[in-house]
Specification:
By secondary structure, the chain is mostly helical. Helices cover 61% and strands 6% of the residues.
Amino acid sequence: MEIHGVFIRLLKQSSISREGMSKALGYLQEFRLRWREVLPVESVRNLAEECLDRYRIRSADALQLAAAIIWCNGNPKGRPFVCFDTELCDAARQAGFDVRS
């Protein structure tokens, strides 16, 4: 949802064309077929609250970081974390992820 929102914002800012957005949404659909979605169950919410205590991030970012930590079974060392938000990148690095921005 966040990625889709970025594409919409870029279109509204005239940073991409409708054709560019359509192409980007096509790539997103391809990625969606291969990713593993972590739902906001109680363990993710609890970990997100811990992330809020530990890092300088917003609530939605804490949920993303917590989901990533759950995805890698609590072992983020060397795992990729793709992000373009400065605060979330910093938190993911501190957590041990290999951040790619």
